[in-house]
Amino acid sequence: SKLTSLGHLEMTWRSRVHFHPLLVRVLHKSRLRYYGKPEKKMDVPYQAYFEVADSSGMISMVLWNSLCPEWYNSMKVGTVLLLEQYAIKNSYPFKTQPTPGDSQMKRFATIEISLNVRDPPTKISIIPEEMVKPEWGLPEVKYRFITRSELDNLPNNHSCDVIGLVTFVGRIERARKRERSEDFWLYRWAHAIDGTSEQPFILEIFATSQPDVFEHIHPMTYLVCTQMRVVRDLTDNPSSTIYLTTSNESQIFITGCHKGQPYTRDTKVKNFIHWTKTQSEADQMKKTVIGGYYPLPRPPNSFLKY
């Protein structure tokens, strides 16, 4: 009876110090960010963004410091949260924005919810899915799955979700975050097929905050990658390779992780599962490859051209 809505919060937050509880569903989840510096003495300098929504729209929610190790893994895409004693702040203008599955959903971009250990100490409760009532009006998680046959027509930087059967996975490589920096990004290449094209999805998968999944991508795994971005050569080179790369909000799922995930209800996911049942496992196994160096963009065929 004492709940408030995101729409009401946006209109009234400046005139309040204490806010009524919120009931929201997690629609997107960013990777965990470490912002510690040697000169700053902070115990747990972590931060994570979530996009959460109720019937009035979607807003960014920030999880701070020691709340991250306590709650980050529990707050999955689709999780329903009851939030009490949270803070409202002006939103940070430079954060990345995921592409919502529902383009009609209103976005409250000027403010964000801040969850802290103190000032005020936030109380977080996870509502089990079987206790969520339809009359709460919480939006469902929606996706933007594409098939491999649709990929060739998509523009650079387009956001999409994909599912495929892994046929190749490369070794874990690393790239400097910045020139002369001692920090590195970890990533690996993978190929996945979905039966709609002779060509595979080429996936550049960066280590997100899911090391248990990232390290266990194997051939013959059913791989789901969400919030991927299309990367294509913007010159007029028709033979250039189109591939997909992870974004700040990408989530990766492999065989063993799929049960109960919201995307299992998506039509294109169901079509893919139906296609895999028509395939011979032994035939597909013969085509799989693991490890090795995978250069992209590909070097020229001869050293003279190089």
TrEMBL record:
Pfam families: RADX
GO function terms (MF aspect): single-stranded DNA binding
Organism superkingdom: Eukaryota
Record InterPro entries: NA-bd_OB-fold, RADX
Protein name, as recorded: RADX protein
